[in-house]
What we know:
Elements: E1 3-6, E2 8-12, E3 15-19, E4 30-35, E5 41-46, E6 51-57, E7 60-65, E8 70-75, E9 80-84, E10 89-93, E11 100-105, E12 114-115
Antiparallel strand pairs: 1-9, 2-3, 4-11, 5-10, 5-12, 6-9, 6-11, 7-8, 7-10
Amino acid sequence: MANLIQLQSFSDYRGSLVAIDKILPFEMKRVYFIHGATTKRGGHRHIKTFQALLCPSGSCEIFVDSGTKEEVYLLDDPSKCLILDPSDWHTMDKFSKDCVLLVIASEHFDKDDYIAEKNHD
C-alpha cells in the first residue's frame, strides 16, 4: 500500500537541501524523471518494482488503487516522497507547468514487469 513519507530538509540562508539517504525501503536501481507533462501518465502497476515518487519542482497528483483502497496524493513540496508497492495501480496527473516528477525504482526497466489492469487477483 502507498505510503507518504517526509524527507529530511536542511535549510539556512543559502537555501534548502533535501536528502534521500537511508530512508527508502529498497535499493535504488533506476532513476528517471518526467517533465513537460501535459496529460495523465502511468495507468499501471508492477510485478516486482517498488517506486519512490517526488517533485523537486512544481506539483502533481498521484492516484493510487491498492486493491483495497483508492487515494489521491498531492506532491507539492520537495520533501514529500510517495512510496509505491508493486501492486499499487497508479496514475500521475494535474502536473503544474514547472513540475519535475522524479522516480526512483527498485528494478531496472523491464516491459514484462508492467501490468495495465487494475484487477488485483
